[in-house]
Amino acid sequence: MPLSTTISEQIPNSDWLYSRLETATAVLVSLATCSIFFSIAVAQIFLAASLLTLLLSRKPVRFPARLGIALLAFLGWSLLSLAFSPDVPQGIPQLRKLFVFLALVVAYNAYERQGQIWKTAHAVMLGGAASALYGLVQFVQDYRRITSAGLPFYENYLVHQITGFMSHWLTFGGQLLIVLLLAVSIALFGKLSPAMRWTAWLSAGLAALALLGAFTRGIWLGAFAGLAYLLIRFKPRSLWLLPAAALLLFFLSPSWLQQRGLSIVDTGTDTSNQARLVMFWTGLRMISSNPWLGVGPERVAAEFSRYKPPELPLPPGWYGHLHSNYLQLAAERGIPCLLFWLWALFEVFGLSLTLARSPSIQGRALGHAAIAMSIGLMVAGLFEFNLGDSEIMMPYLFLIAAGFAWTRLEPAGQRPADSAPGPSALPHTP
Q: Can you give the residue range of the structural domain that contains 413?
């Protein structure tokens, strides 16, 4: 047998096998994206399986080049910070979390047809709606339990808010933010049958109600910003509806929901806000003393008392991280790492704007959803370290990569960059 004989020539029906592996990769990626709302362990098993089938299928693995460079710089600096950390073993959990970023590569390469991507987006929307519905059931149970005991609802509910299938209300709220903005974008921009349009609005409504019930104030602000973007892109004149709806909701809400809304600006009695102010000044001192490599991954909690301004009292709160993406990255891994992450987000916006000019209605819906989700998570990230939450980052990374894959699958002559100015169509690296 000649040395030049390929494997495909040696194995009968190898083309059939590779085709099935490609299909399996797309199915596994979709399952990983949908199952994240119910179990992080199951989702990561599906992610690992999809990576394996992708490699076995012998497809060339590609990725948007500029985004890839930015993410590699971010990941590389994270590893550099870990290498120079005074306690390397303590930072190992952050190394494991970098596995989540493989979702971008796998989702970008998994799909061979745009219809697969569109069906996955709908499945994610419905899975998120099911999670929101479960969270609303939890809320009703909590409300009945607290009020039947004759206890004040607001003070006792704050001890443990609804979490859906997740372990924490902030994780649940971050997922609801993604579902809400995806569903609204699909309803506004997607080409849907009347039944599917109502399904999208129903999913958005369930996510919005559960988000209110989760009491996650920073995520409320992120949702407001993401919805504002979608309304501006849909019909700019309709933007007034958003503040009007917010005001109407406030005045029609029960007193405990009004109290939660007003607490956003309460630094006198709200201990959560007071704790965040202490974290802010402490984080700035960490950054000032360690501008290049930070204090080390997972070392903010260990170093907190050392850098806390001595004149500031320490309100009750959890000080395991700084409750801000921007403060946390700069304090933990250095200012360059934060800049690399912002560079990656800049590339995400550029690629998503390209997708938002897609000739297909579905592509535009996915592009606008990616931008709205990015805006929402960036605003919410001012008040919470959602970048460190795999259950939030996985669906976000899956969905934006699937949107980039949509552009990759556009016929060459119909790609937005071929007919409109702006960011170049997705450049690839082999």
A: 14-268+321-419
